[in-house]
Design a protein that fits this description.
alpha/beta, 15% strand, 262 residues
């Protein structure tokens, strides 16, 4: 089978550049093609390096809206880029580039097993084990717990749906590109509701590799603060982080409500 990676990437400060250069050769071994939708504000060196690499790179227009509130648009765009570029792709892994780089570097065997299992369903929700879930800041864990609870009450499926990683058959990817209208982060749930309504087969798989990856780009700060827990504590002490995540939670739940009423 052919498996293509469809990824979004946003790195305005170039913090992910060293890991990207280091891990990309390993990442390429897992896929028959890689399509990346890159934000126009990403670091110049990142854009230049990816342009020289063996990837299907699409840099979004300079006026494209960026941020958590527009993630559905970006994720759909990455899937569309992969479909358009790789006409022979049978299966897609959608995943933000920072997460899949971490996965390939620290949990490569699990990534290989996960990709091999994609044909088991049209759409596979890739979630996190309890350990991987709780490796995230509390300001992220608690709001995402609410989303998972709401999704379970709507569907009866007790899944972790906010890890932003999906295995997609070409049929499922086509459905998302042509039928999804959710430009918000609510797409993390509404893609699933859309696929379920269309009669596609859904599956769920827990992973360790989707643990908290953000620390990869802040190793200097982690060292200065005295370790990962100190960095997480500082993150959770910032009320702005809680406000953002609570706003995103509301957005997801409202998107679900709208989808269910259509």
């Amino acid at each position: 089978m052919t498996v293509v990676l469809a990824a979004t990437h946003h790195d305005p400060d170039g913090r992910l550049y060293p890991q990207m250069v280091r891990v990309f050769p390993t990442l390429q071994q897992y896929f028959d093609g890689i399509a990346i939708l890159l934000t126009p504000t990403s670091a110049t060196e990142t854009q230049a390096w990816l342009a020289r690499s063996e990837v299907a790179l699409h840099v979004a227009p300079s006026d494209a809206p960026i941020g958590h509130r527009h993630l559905g648009r970006w994720r759909r765009g990455a899937v569309q880029t992969a479909l358009t570029t790789f006409a022979n792709a049978e299966w897609l892994l959608f995943c933000d580039l920072d997460r899949v780089l971490h996965w390939a570097e620290y949990w490569p065997d699990e990534l290989a097993v996960t990709l091999a299992a994609l044909p088991e369903a049209d759409l596979t929700v890739l979630g996190r084990t309890a350990r991987a879930f709780y490796s995230h800041p509390r300001a992220q864990v608690l709001p995402e717990t609410i989303v998972n609870e709401v999704f379970a009450r709507m569907t009866g499926l007790t899944w972790d749906v906010m890890a932003a990683a999906r295995g997609l058959s070409r049929r499922a990817a086509d459905l998302i590109v042509t039928a999804s209208r959710d430009d918000s982060i609510g797409a993390d749930c509404t893609w699933l509701l859309l696929a379920q309504r269309a009669g596609l087969q859904l599956a769920y798989r827990e992973t360790e590799g989707l643990e908290f990856e953000t620390l990869d780009r802040y190793q200097d700060e982690v060292t200065t603060l005295g370790g990962p827990q100190a960095w997480l504590d500082r993150f959770d002490a910032n009320l702005n982080n809680w406000l953002l995540r609570l706003e995103l939670t509301y957005t997801v739940v409202e998107s679900c409500r709208q989808q269910m009423n259509e």
